[in-house]
UniProtKB/TrEMBL annotation:
The keyword Ion transport does not apply. Residues 112-160 form the RNA polymerase sigma factor 70 region 4 type domain. The lineage of its organism: Bacteria, Bacillati, Bacillota, Bacilli, Bacillales. Residues 12-78 form the RNA polymerase sigma-70 region domain. It comes from the Bacteria. Belongs to the sigma-70 factor family. ECF subfamily. InterPro entries: RNA_pol_sigma-70-like, RNA_pol_sigma-70_dom, RNA_pol_sigma70_r2, RNA_pol_sigma70_r4_t2, RNA_pol_sigma_r2, RNA_pol_sigma_r3/r4-like, WH-like_DNA-bd_sf. Keywords: Sigma factor, Transcription, Transcription regulation. This is Sigma-70 family RNA polymerase sigma factor. Transmembrane segments: none annotated.
Length: 171
């Protein structure tokens, strides 16, 4: 396959998507995370194809998938540890609960407001996936589109967010 040949890459994705998902799921044991990481694996593979040395393609893809899954697992573990530390500090300081609730409400309001600024086709998929906690298949069924379209919309929505939102606005 020649790097940059999108039709050939689409065929590659169709052929190996279930396999890569299973590899990722075996590490993460969480469907939604596995779906996200599977999408990221194919993006990584697409960009890394020019460096591929034609040695054990399926093994190479598996290694990329396992590494991405492990990265996410480590990140979630760090986040969990950070939250535990925050909870300890809050418990020790007996922080003002109403203040924390107020901050949380402000953040939720900000995210909902910002979601409304997104293009509608991205907003619907983001809301269904992140707010309603639906799977790709559920979203596809609800919206009458293919699962691949859901994946594409989520990818484009995340790209749009990175371009248009600043992290500082959410602190």
């Amino acid at each position: 396959m020649i790097a940059g040949d999108q039709e050939a890459f689409r065929e590659l994705m169709e052929k190996y998507q279930t396999y890569i998902f299973q590899v990722v799921y075996s590490v993460l044991r969480h469907q939604k995370d596995a779906e996200d990481v599977t999408q990221e694996v194919f993006i990584r593979i697409y960009h890394a194809l020019p460096q591929y040395k034609n040695q054990g393609f399926k093994t190479w893809m598996s290694r990329v998938a396992v590494n991405k899954a492990i990265d996410l697992k480590r990140k979630k573990q760090r986040e969990k540890e950070d939250l535990t530390e925050i909870e300890k500090v809050e418990h020790i300081s007996h922080g003002n609960v109403t203040e924390m609730e107020s901050i949380q409400r402000e953040r939720v309001h900000l995210v909902k407001t910002r979601l409304n600024e997104m293009p509608e086709n991205y907003r619907d998929v983001m809301f269904a996936y992140y707010i309603q906690d639906k799977t790709y298949r559920e979203i596809a069924k609800d919206q009458g589109i293919e699962v691949k379209s859901v994946e594409s919309k989520l990818y484009r929505a995340k790209k749009w967010i990175r371009k248009n939102w600043k992290e500082e606005e959410f602190k």
